[in-house]
Amino acid sequence: MASIVLKRLATAIPSLIGVIFVSFLLTRVLPGDTASYFAGPAATPQAIAEVRKQLGLDKSLPEQFARYVADLAHGDLGNSLTTGRPVVAEIANRLPASGELTLLGLLIALTIAVPLGILAAIREGLWIDHVCRVIVTTGVSLPVFFTGLLLVYVFYFQLGWSPAPLGRLDVFYSAPPQVTGFYVVDSLIARDFETFRAAFAQLILPAATLAIFSLAPLARITRGSMLAVMGSDFVRTARASGLTPKTVILTYAFRNAMLPVVTTLGMVFSFLLGANVLVEKVFAWPGIGSYAVEALLASDYAPVQGFVLAMAVLYVALNLMIDLLYGVIDPRVRLEA
Amino acid sequence: MLDVVHQPLLDIRDLTVEFATRRGTVTAVRNIDISANKGETLGIVGESGSGKSVTSFAVMRILDRAGRIAGGSVTFSGIDLRAASDRDMGDMRGREISMIFQNPRAALNPIRKVGYQIEDVLLRHVQAVPANVKEKAIDILKQVRIARPEERYHAYPFELSGGMCQRIVIAIALACRPQLLIADEPTTGLDVTTQKAVMELVVELTHKRGMSTVLITHDLGLAAAYCDRVVVMRKGEVVETAPSDIIFNSPAHAYTRKLMRATPRPGATLRDLLDEERPARKPTSVQADGRPLLKITDLVKEYARQGVTKSMAQLFGRKASAVDEQPFRAVDGISFEIMRGQSVGLVGESGCGKSTTSMMAMRLLDPTSGSIVLDGEDIGAIPARKFAKLPARKRIQMVFQDPTDSLNPRFTAMRAIADPILRLGGISGRDALRARCEELAQLVGLPRHLLDRFPHQLSGGQKARVGIARAIALHPELVILDEPTAALDVSVQAIVLNLLDELKARFGMSYLFVSHDLHVVRLLCDHVIVMKSGRIVEQGSAEQVLEAPQDEYTRELIAAIPHPPV
Amino acid sequence: MTAFDTTVIEAAASPATGLSATLKHARHVVTGNPITGFSFTLFILLLVCALFGPYLVPYDPLATNTVVALKPPSLHHLMGTDQLGRDLLSRVVVATRLDMEVAIFSVALVFVLGGISGIAAGYFGGWTDRLVGRLSDTIMAFPLFVLAMGIVAALGNTVTNIIIATAIINYPLYVRIARAEANVRRNAGFVQAARLSGNGEFRILLMQILPNILPIMMVQMSLTMGYAILNAAGLSFIGLGVRPPTPEWGIMVAEGAAFIVSGEWWIALFPGLALMLAVFCFNMLGDGLRDIVDPQRRT
Predict the structure, then answer these.
(1) Which terminus has fewer CB within 10 Å in chain A: N or C?
(2) Ordered domains of chain B (ranges, CATH)
(3) Model ipTM?
(4) pTM, entire model
């Protein structure tokens, strides 16, 4: 088992190298003078020269790359122009907000999409199948930011059920003591149910937006995969052996059908991490997405680059976990290597 | 009172099965009567489209969504299967009636241990309790002759061979001791020696338990060897039902006679396979030229083993084993000759290297070492990539096994046949090309109006003719045929084989006929080469190899082929 | 799984004769399925708006008129007006051109680049395959929208760079499809037969492989158009690429977002709906295209 984990880790390394290299390239491709961009619009020529020396832009490209990697190894992603603080610290600070949102959104999506897809497949042609297909077709066409705005309009403006989309907590409440960084979890740990309700109320709409967004591809792949598996030879054998419908669907069909779904999770995560940025803007959510967007519009480049790199590293780690999960389900991958 | 003993176990009366397709309702099976008695083995034979599989699916009520039983009755042991509830059917399947299918590896759950799959059936039909189910499962594995059953219990299907997978499928089917086993083409795709082993296992187990078996197959030899009574189906209808010896020796119906005639068997000639009366043709004589057309010497093809295994092993500090080091030899030093006008058969089971050999002789694949000499010219030395443009390319052509795969789906039949002529035949100009293609179509018996059709609009036999027309378009001297009739119905096969023989005589071509079907090889070939594991184990004239084989393996191979009574 | 092979029936059909048969089949598909018909109509509508939009609209999309600012939909302004009094209908229609341009150019670009490298990688294998695979994997290692943000940040905030960024992030998908199709066919029977007929490798690639891959790539192109529009709109929503007062659906939704909380729903809704309809149209069209070009379905 350990050897399999090691093997998978080994395949992640070239990805990491590629990511670091591309990130480095992006830092150097800035139009015009990189140093003046990092120094800011109000910098004096002297300050720009300082920044140039600091960034090592006066050295050769391979040397610059070496410095870049060395800095990364020390956890140095540069400093933000607008706040002056290290980018790494700010990203670490804001990560839990994004994490809470994405995880809850994905959880909701999975809980709805997978059963929906399965039911649609085994009741092919019936009403639930049509419902599933309509959801999938509209879901993939909806821009995620549009969904968010619609939800705000309906649930905040019209129905008044949700609080104003102004961030993670209403001004009246203060954040619970930090354990995980997730407000809903931390407030429960601290047994502060008022704060829990407030945090959850703020969280639910953006999480629902992300859920609706990821629902469509997940339901589609679950339905498609389940349909394909239900038509396969080994399911035919299971039925011909008289196994109960429940056994056929759960033990024989479902587990095999989940394999493509797990593979697709990687792609879904890619979309989710991107959609995160848009949802954070709609709901003024103080996560790393909005951090990057704010920095981008202020021509503050270090946070943007740090953001891209951090997200890529996170994504590589997620893909690794998905690979391992796949290996757990599918013995062919485990044993054939 | 009706004597219960004479009641058939399975009684199908006036059954009609329909399918809803995009083009409306299609009747797959129409008003058929079939019955199987207790303890007997009933064969249902027919060509593709005969409805034999559909019948069995209808009995088991596992037709897919588009299909339904439109009329008639199916009675099993007195129980009306059409009226039975889903739950009752679920109880009966696996416990009273079982079914096994072709393609055994696909029939097993790929991510579940085979032992567990057997257990699932035992537990479902209450033939075991969780405490003793594993023991019973291992016992069943022993009964189907799986070696090291305790170990194999934990195996996954991908770790087992095709033959072993079929044994597991049989184990699952027979685990609960049903009264009736339906076997739908259980040996298709398996090697002939494995086929024999599997059939013998089925016969042993079913006879021991007094079970009835329904064997569905297109292989008449198989039906003759193992069935007591035979039902012949054609286009959804039952054409004839009779005991085995009557069907094979004195069939009543014209279609049955045609099928029998078309089946390759010892003692029959090519002509005998056809149903029309044709004047006997002089047998083709081997040109006594002396010089071989194709001479293969010490041909070797090696493939490097997966480098990953070795390097990974080293990564973890283990020494790579000897097996990891050596490359895999698909062809391990073979030598043979093909004379002008001669027809040589290359036979062997899957993995013996015959296809690799034919690919190298075709110059589509480069040999690792050894020589390939065509009429004095060393063509083995020329890399495959360059060979396509040389004039020598015209002299060797090929007829492929899968007629569908070997035709470009976007080319009409005419365009496919015209391709070699355009590239190497020196004819251009639409009219001249068209004339030549029509000439070729006529030679192979392809109606002219079919030339403008696409492959998906042609039948299997028609596609095969297109492939043959394309192969002979340049009047090659040597044609390599890689299982050209394997995918065809037996009646179509008879016609195509005769066509191939006629063309050979007419143009004086030599054939290298690669096949696993020894009966077909016997009919078409003068000279036979038997391969195993990349080596030639025996070669000689067709009579000598097939009637008086010297090698043990050849004998085994011949003994394994089921054939109808001569 | 079915024991019954419907292709045996369908093989006995009348012969197809090139273009006229294709068009006939196309018409059959478009009229047969109502959704395909609907999306085809929608596609025509989008084309008309993109090509002739500026000439058809009642108001100048850039003309401000603060007197009628923030008016809900009415007879004068069918989609209402925005915070600067500009007619929303005019802006939505004129915006079609920009979004379509971005989508078409980026899809065309990635089709050529991804298609060529994918086919080469799948057909020739070896170093080509390894190189293309590396490149593809490196791009895929990033969450795609995030990468697009990074590329636009690095190259500069212009519409051209949005096109380039969108093309880059779709590259791995096209490579994967092209490569898989070329690989499957590389040693197919008819390709071997073509070699036997004296065709060289490049000729085979051009005449045999490409025509078989093209339909599948075309279907993918349609689907990618939808995704490209969403991507471009998303980038505009966060302020990349398009600058006000240029009308573009994404940026219009962003402008309207501020007013949702105060109940002026029309400013964000109509551009958002337009986005949704455009993407829906291309997705459905892709499915319909698949039915037309797949030779198995032809009669």
Answers:
(1) N
(2) 1-96+217-263 (3.40.50.300), 292-378+393-406+478-560 (3.40.50.300)
(3) 0.87
(4) 0.85
